[in-house]
Amino acid sequence: MRSRVTMVFAIVAVLLGGVLLVPTAYARLSTDDSGGGGGGGGASVAAPAPTPPPPPTLAAGRVSVSFKGEFFSWALMDRQTGKISGSSNMASTSSTESMLKAWIISDYLRQLKDREPPANLKKAASLAIRNSDDDAANAVYKAAGGSYAVPPGGQPGPVVKRAISICGLTDTKRGNVPKYEGWWSFTRMSPRDAVRLGDCIADGKAAGPKWTKWVLSEMSQVKGTTAAKDQKLKSGGGRWGIINGLPKSITAQGPVSIKNGWTAINYDGNWHVNCLAVNGKWSLAVMLRYPIKSGLDYGAQVCASVATQLVTPQPGAALKVPQQPVGKL
């Protein structure tokens, strides 16, 4: 009898001990964050949140354009690394046209340092960029020390010479058309140098610490389209090209500063069209020569197409490693 009672008490003790031990063990496990030894295995750990993909940008990639013309070339600079990629002929040159106005204005303002320009020249500087006004650009060019006299020895004039030295340009030369040899608009520049110029303006070397933000702001407020109503004899609408090829996911990240150059030139029967755009991450240039009969819209669309093809990641596509740059003519 005593042995049976003893056994019953033993069973009850074991059961009670289990009831007491389980909460104690549970409490110990739930408060043990170390994940180390001592029987802590089996505790659940929350999965880390997925890393969001980087925002869209422009990056080296394939560009394929069914281009009909004499010259098509492009270059893209990654402004974080300084690496330049582009078409196989990105070191070849074409006339800058009004694209150079962004440098002319920057060169003049840098020379002022902290001084304000006269009101008429500040207004001219704004018109030269926003409206691509030739007379306004010529006034600032003269104030910057520019001259239409042909420099000796095949050298570019002082304004362009400073662009070469300050911005590290390697392909830029004086124009080689005899009738227009001293004109700044016929300066020959490559897309590779054009993206260096864009970077030079954006990083402050071109206009200096006081005026860089002002120049970039003016470039982000370029006006007008390719429509005939916006194109005048000595000025014209220049808000087209690369800017039209960028998705909202890029333009919403911050202002994109642009300066295009375009002229239908009778001596060679071509449109000379150049597109330059720069933001905090990249600098992109597209330079073209093609028959006048194709119209300005054709060049604007080519510039936009290059920009769209370089968007990474492409809208609706998974993030992928950029391909090696290829320029297909």
Please explain how this structure is put together.
The chain starts with a helix and ends with a strand. It is an alpha+beta fold and 329 residues long. The chain has helices at 2-31, 101-112, 119-130, 134-143, 158-167, 191-202, 208-219, 242-245, 248-251, 296-309, and strands at 57-58, 62-64, 71-78, 84-86, 94-95, 188-189, 257-258, 261-265, 270-278, 282-291, 311-312, 326-328.
Tell me, what's the shape?
A: globular
- Strand/helix succession: HEEEEEHHHHEHHHHEEEEHEE
In total, how many beta strands? 12
Poorly predicted residue ranges? 1-40, 318-329
Helix content: 25-40%
Total helical segments? 10
Distance between the termini: 105 Å
Average pLDDT score: 87
Radius of gyration: 32 Å
Which structural category do the helix and sheet elements fall into?
Answer: alpha+beta
Largest sheet: 6 strands, antiparallel
Describe this protein with a few key phrases.
about 35% helix, about 325 residues, alpha+beta, 10 helices, globular, two-stranded antiparallel ribbon, disordered N terminus, single chain
